[in-house]
Amino acid sequence: MSTITDLFKSARSGDRRSLSKLLTKIESGESLVIHPESGWTLGVTGPPGVGKSTLIGRIIEYWAAAGQAVAVLAVDPTSPVSGGAFLADRIRMGGADSKDSVFVRSLASRNHPGGLMPCLDVMCQVLYACGWSRVIIETVGSGQSEIRIVAFVDTVLLVDGPDRGDIIQAEKAGILELADVIAINKADLPNSSFAADAVKGALELSDGEAAPVHLVSAIDGSGVKPLIIDLESSQPNSARVVLRNRERLIASWDSVLLSHPEIESHMEKLCDGTITVGEAIKSMGSTIDFGGDLTD
User: Fold this and answer.
1) Do residues 236 and 154 make contact, with C-beta atoms less than 8 angstroms apart?
2) Tens digits of residue pLDDT in 6-50
3) 148, 120 in Cβ contact below 8 A?
4) Which tops the pLDDT comparison, 1 or 42?
């Protein structure tokens, strides 16, 4: 079997099969230390069913036509019972991933807290090193994952639908204030303009410069070009630096805890009441090796 280093060398030469195998090894927990590469990562988040994958397909088409090499990491939720995931995002992206300049990889969340695994950082660096200048991460679209996305990307796009209920959920999650650009999809539906106005009104109540809000239709492509122009011109928000590093730290700690060799035995002891949560944390914490970069 090829080592992870061999796969990396082959992937850099343009072999897509090696790239897929390499990402699988990284997803499974194998380490790869590489030099930081330059690239740009867009995080796309929002409630389920608002058309994130279809809109991503439109963005891919635009960038591919402009000569950009685009890679997508689409995270799907994992069943807490079976451990399985549907991994169907590429179906909703249409034929976008059939182009030579496009690479789409579905990932199972594997029940990582926040829905995003710390290895996403390494995966993005691998994709940059292999020539993909634009990387898109699509979240599972619920709960804490909408906030944790800031730990891995340069720009956050929040996609919402014309249902005001979706906007309220975004407000509760806090992602509305963290988004760099906001898209109200399904612009052909009656409530879309109302939803856009509601978002703008909510943003006016917050401190700092409000994120631009766009009405778009992923189905017919209307409004997509102005949206992309704003995405490309978006500047890093200094207020998010602390949050970004906080979420990276939490994500790395979660990974260390979940991969601890004694976690299953401690879970059994917790279930039968022989130890407390505090005792389990103290026991596992005393045997953790903190050497090196935890995300590598």
Assistant:
1) yes
2) 999 999 999 999 999 999 999 887 888 888 778 899 999 888 888
3) no
4) 42
Rounded CA-CA distance 205/94 in Å is: 38
Whether residue 134 contacts residue 104, with contact meaning beta carbons closer than 8 Å, is answered with: no
Within the chain, strands assigned E span 40-45, 70-76, 102-108, 134-138, 155-160, 181-184, 213-215
The residues, any chain, with a CB within 8 Å of residue 296's CB and separated by 6 or more, are 31, 32, 33, 122
| Those residues with Cβ within 8 angstroms of residue 183's Cβ, 6 or more apart along the chain or in another chain | 55, 157, 158, 159, 160, 213, 214, 215, 216, 223, 227
Roughly what angle, to the nearest 10 degrees, separates helices 52-65 and 224-233? 80
**Three-state DSSP state, 15:** coil
Q: Please say whether the beta carbons of 32 and 130 come within 8 A.
A: no
d(CA 36, CA 194): 43
Question: In the beta sheet, which residues pair with residue 75?
Answer: 107
Question: Model confidence over 147-179: pLDDT tens digits?
Answer: 778 778 889 999 988 875 555 555 555 677 778
Query: What is the reported pTM?
Result: 0.79
CB 187 within 8 A of CB 222: yes
d(CA 231, CA 223): 13
Domains of the chain by range and CATH? 1-32 (no CATH), 34-240 (3.40.50.300)
Q: Which residues make Cβ contacts (< 8 Å) with residue 92, sequence separation at least 6?
A: 53, 54, 57
